Amino acid sequence: MATLAQFLMEEALTKGAAARASRCGAMRTRAVSRLTNLYLLRLRFLIEQPGRTPLLAEEVQIIGHLGRLGDRENVRQGEVEWLAEGEVLRLLAEAQPDANIGGAERKELVSAALAGWDTLDSGLKQTVEARAQVLSESHRRVRQAVSMKVRGLTVKPQLPPDLLGLLVLQPAVEQDCESVRA
């Protein structure tokens, strides 16, 4: 199963529209009560220590926020309601498609989320910088544990992160779910 997932992800990254799997999607689900965007990101960091060659570190992280960017309900730039990491992971594990979304609506939802991606700079920067701080503390602890130097150790985020994938979760109403069962 892991090999299949790796193959599909690599194909989606290299073949674009010709791939069997998409990097962007949308589903209607009862798991959310408001429109929710989840982003799969590749984060990069330079780990530097005086007198040593810098190391490049990469990791994948999933982040998410509530609401459509630009909607009057809550999201002008800088006012995005970010989800906690645990909530994002819960949604990925538990959200199931509960109703169909037509192709035009799916395209509109994904296009709106992608169009709003550029307005997320400040929130993304804070997320990546916070992760860099956590990595710096981890590297310091490990190096101290094995009696290595930690003086001058820095972990610098390389911005912006790469957007690898997007999932838009749209709330399902009972009427939508009934039409699927019929």
Report on this model:
The protein has 182 residues and is of the alpha+beta class. It has one domain. Helices cover 40% and strands 28% of the residues. The chain is built from 5 helices and 5 strands. The protein has helices at residues 2-15, 85-94, 103-117, 121-145, 174-181; strands at 24-29, 36-48, 55-66, 81-82, 154-171. The longest helix has 25 residues, at 121-145. The model is unreliable at 72-78 (pLDDT under 50).
List keywords for this structure.
182 residues, alpha+beta, 5-stranded mixed sheet, 5 strands, 40% helix
Oligomer: single chain
Number of continuous helical runs: 5
Give the ordered list of helices and strands.
Answer: HEEEEHHHEH
The 3D shape can be described as elongated
Low-confidence stretches: 72-78
Largest sheet: 5 strands, mixed
Estimated share of beta-strand residues: 25-35%
Cross-sheet strand order for the largest sheet: 1-5-2-3-4
| Share of helical residues | 25-40%
Mean pLDDT over the residues: 84
Structural class: alpha+beta
Q: How many domains make up the coordinates?
A: 1
The total count of strands amounts to: 5
Radius of gyration of CA atoms, rounded to a whole number: 19 Å
What is the terminal separation in angstroms? 33 Å
